[in-house]
Amino acid sequence: MILTRGMEGCLYIFPLAAWKRVEEQLEQLPLTDASSRAFVRFFYSGASKSRLDAQSRVSVPQPLRTFADLGTDVVVAGAPGRLELWNPARWDAAILAVQQDPPHPELLANFIA
Length: 113
Prior knowledge:
By secondary structure, the protein is an alpha+beta fold. It has one domain (2-108): Chemotaxis protein chec, CATH 3.40.1550.20. Helix content is 42%, strand content 18%. The radius of gyration is 16 Å and the shape is globular. The termini are far apart.
């Protein structure tokens, strides 16, 4: 599995097959675009390969723990193709933000039918 920086201050955990698909998409970004280069740097520079230990735990490297402000309590959230690791306070703030400003109805049209 691959751990890397995620959006909104969380961490992403990708299975290797999903990570390969992400890499293929990142490779399609234009090298001539500064924001694309910056995002690729952000995403790749934090990437770390890991595996579950004998007790099904994953070790998170300190730079990633610092980035996500992870302490002893961590929220593990499922997402399409990945898991997300969150600091509980950041998680609560992210959920509250969605509740206060939900996505536009047209984005949800295929899910609510």
